[in-house]
What does this fold into?
Amino acid sequence: MAEAKTKTFNNAVPFPEAGEGVVLRFRTIDLIKLEEKYGESFTEVISRLLSANSSACMVECLKHGLKKEDGRTPFGRLDFNDLPFSIVEARESIFDAITCAITGQSFAALLDARARIVEGDQPADPLQGSETAESSAERSEPEMEPASVEPTSST
It folds into this structure.
């Protein structure tokens, strides 16, 4: 008899604070629910609220993101009225799980990639060097002339 395999997801963030085998993983529908609640810029809003230690935002994210080890089944054995962990303990895992759901990378990996771009170690344009990418020499941008400013007289 063949053994059933449980599919695991690389965008599931282990969250042992909530219990053994618990992960934070945001499925597409979970992201849609967060976007409906917090608006089009939901990631920025959630980031701001969690950074300000919003209990309401943390609980909302946990309600959508907590899953059993399979990454699909909602984890429902948590008393949201008396959580066994702090907002600070949950914050980084929530950031990671949302970032993984959107980009496939952890929040830390995304920040590292952005830092490499800023430091010049990585091209900002992912198509740079490819045959389809337009070089900066080929781009024609309109010439901008500084506007002349007439001095004002005070009388």
Notes: DSSP finds five helices and three strands in the chain. Residues 13-119 form one domain. The longest strand covers residues 13-14.
